[in-house]
Amino acid sequence: MGSPSLLFLFLAVLAFVTVDCSYEGDVLYAWKIKLEDPNNVLKSWDSSLANPCTWSHVTCNSNNNVTRVDLGNAGLSGPLIPDLGNLTFLQYFEVFENKINGSIPSEIGKLLKLVSLDLKYNHLSGFIPESLGNLTSLRFMRLNHNNLTGTVPKEIFQLIGSGNLWTLDLSDNDLNGTVRATNPIGFAITTVIQDPKA
Questions:
Q1: CATH at 22
Q2: What residues form DSSP beta bridges with 116?
Q3: How far apart are CA 59 and CA 52, in angstroms?
Q4: Strand 58-60 relative to strand 66-70: parallel, antiparallel, unpaired?
Q5: 100 inside domain
Q6: What is the rounded distance in angstroms from the CA atom of residue 166 to the CA atom of residue 38?
Q7: pLDDT tens-digit profile of 162-196?
Q8: Could you tell me the keywords of this UniProt record (predicted)?
Q9: Is residue 144 a part of any domain in this protein?
Q10: DSSP secondary structure string for all residues of 101-117
């Protein structure tokens, strides 16, 4: 009598994990079709494969949740999409030295496990979303060498003030304003802050 119940529980868990993996794969595939990929680095991102953990440049944890996307210097162009904010287990989003354009979606601020956001040397424009201040696990934020405008949200500086954000690089953008010298953080918007323990 116990065996059928155990089998049902196993199948239910398997179905949940499969649906979760499939959803993350759907998000990444939806992004892929918005990108130009002249070097074909996303060839393995196949929508017919339910589990994106088999795709190149994608790393997963033991539960098959996507934790890393590593696409540095891949020759990609196109936008970031809001659905990327639904990769809730993502810890590293490394998409530097490409030709990514458009704005940074505010939905990126939903990636609460994110440790590193590296979008340097792209063609991003628009404002830095205030929602990035929600990323309390973030240790490294590199948005330098883009076309970002406006002022830096105070929520970003609060991450540094709390001691969580170790490296912030916003240099070589079109940002304006500075942090007042009386602010305990006390640095200009283009300065890189490094972990004092490093």
A1: 3.80.10.10
A2: 92, 140
A3: 9
A4: antiparallel
A5: yes
A6: 34
A7: 888 999 999 999 998 654 434 444 444 444 444 44
A8: Leucine-rich repeat, Repeat, Signal
A9: yes
A10: EEPPPGGGGG-TT--EE
